[in-house]
Amino acid sequence: MGLWKRALTPEAFAGTHAATLPGLLGIRLEEVGEDFARASMPVDERHIQPAGILHGGCSVVLAETLGSTCGVMALEDGWTVVGLEVNANHLAPVFKGDRAEAICRPLQLGRTVQVWQIEIRRGDGTLTCVSRLTTVVRQGRGR
Fold first, then answer.
1. pLDDT for residue 142 is more than 70
2. pLDDT over 70 (residue 43)
3. Is the pLDDT of residue 113 over 80?
4. Any idea which fold 10-139 has?
5. Is 64 a catalytic residue?
6. Rounded to an integer, what distance in angstroms lies between the CA atom of residue 59 and that of residue 63?
7. One of 30, 31, 34, 64 is an active-site residue; which one?
8. Using CA of residue 88, residue 39, residue 2, residue 126, what is the dihedral sign?
9. Is 69:8 a contact under the CB 8 Å cutoff?
10. Residue 36: closest CA among 132, 117, 135
11. Rg of the chain over all Cα atoms, to the nearest angstrom
């Protein structure tokens, strides 16, 4: 399982988020590798700003959702994470009809704080957003 302490299937992810913002935006967990996780999100009417491109807030939701999911998977049962800070640099547009794909990897996995790097690319592979999520580790119910 690599760095992961808990397994999560795409089906379980979908069930957890069905009635929440990630579910409403169509975010899907696509793959969990040894030291990364990958998720995707369509870009349709729900996701665009008036200029017809992906709204930056949707990129942040994708990044924070994937980073938080990774944070929980990296912990033993009985522990969870809460977002402390998220930032995003929007580098290129994603157009309506495309799909955004995010890859998340850890930068720091401490006992009390985790830092995750998330890169988002559009369908042609262009890097469109770089995000960093800092989470606080705490006892609580896991996913």
1. no
2. yes
3. yes
4. Thiol Ester Dehydrase; Chain A (3.10.129)
5. yes
6. 6
7. 64
8. negative
9. yes
10. 117
11. 14
